[in-house]
Amino acid sequence: MKKWIPLLCVPAFLLGTAFHSWAHVTPNVKLHTTREAVARLLPEGKLSLKEVTLEGENLKALESHENWDSQEDHFNFYVSRDGDRKLKRAAIFMTEFTRHGPVVVGVALDPEGKIADAVVTDVQAEPLEWIGPLLRIPFLESFRGKGSGLDLRLDEKWKRGTTEMAQAYGVILANALKKSAQLFELVFRNGK
Amino acid sequence: MKLTPLSEIPVTTKVLITCFLATLGFGNIAAGIYTAKYVGLSYDSLVETYSDREAPGDHGHPTDHPHRHGPNGEHLPQEETLNEFGEKEITLDEVKEMPHKVGLKLLLQDAHVHLFSHGVLALCIGILFLWSGLSTVWKLALIPLPFLAGTLDFAGMFLVKFVADGFAWLILFAGGLNGLSFSVAFFLACYEMWFLPLKNKKS
Known about the structure:
The structure holds 2 protein chains of 2 kinds. Chain A has 6 helices and 6 strands. Chain A has helices spanning 4-16, 34-41, 56-63, 125-135, 156-159, 164-189; strands spanning 28-30, 46-53, 74-81, 87-98, 101-109, 115-124. By secondary structure, chain B is mainly alpha-helical. Chain B folds into 2 domains: 7-52 and 101-202, no CATH class; 62-99, no CATH class. Chain B has helices at 11-39, 43-50, 104-131, 136-142, 144-162, 168-202; strands spanning 67-69, 75-77, 88-89. Chain B has a two-stranded antiparallel sheet with strand order 1-2. Strand 2 (46-53) of chain A pairs antiparallel with strand 3 (88-89) of chain B, so a sheet runs across the interface.
């Protein structure tokens, strides 16, 4: 009997290297690079970058929102301006940290702080199964024109034909859009 | 403590243990196929998932800083010039890839949830080793394996995140230990329960 234990060791060990999947966090799937997303979200105008670090009163103002749960305090806004230096759009990449890993949503906002466009750039392999169906329907597009006051409760039409996990991730995506609009208001409209 | 050898326990208990091992085995096979198909069995995929460090060439800022030359010809970083809005004018080519992070909160949550359950599974596998007919030396070598595997697996994730990408090899090694300890427990227990009694009868 003792002979087969060493014989089994090698293949068992090699097969077992697969078992780090127990770890629950699956690798990132990049749906769009940052550059591709910026090109799509800010198709016109002169591009610039505004780095924002949240602290003090600004951080408190955002944390007073029930939905604000960001683990980050540093954000980059990509800004497009027209020839008269007027703001055309601003785009931000908002990371939502979920139980199955981070989801990154690129959000473009118009000068009024309303959502102009949105795109999911990064998601882990496992939650992609739930987010994927939402990307095949005009779910993100339905938020266009909405601002920081958008309702996180999913419309009934999005609940039909989607699983509970997809609906949960729908709320997560909506929260990323809402937080982007809230941050935009703080930075561009309240004059940080 | 003297336990009834696995070969002599009632058949009902043998069936219970076999069902447990079969279920665990199915779970492990499914995990392996899922990982191979959707996750990736590589060092690179682990580094990409857990590392907080930037990829080569990434300077941690969204744009490159072109160098100036000092009086002695040394390279100096370009000073950032901000416009009246506090913005740095850039081109699309200067937009750098956003770093991707698995948060500390998620890692702690995963470790908390998985190590508790993994500890119970490791205990069950350890009991099977304890119960086997192996010598004390073999038991002492095998019993810690499943516990070590789970602990090193999660330790590796934290080490990749906070210390060095090279610890991804530790995660792979821990996975191997996991597979090894389960496989040995599976075959050892099945042999002692179902084949050893037949062998003893023949002799």
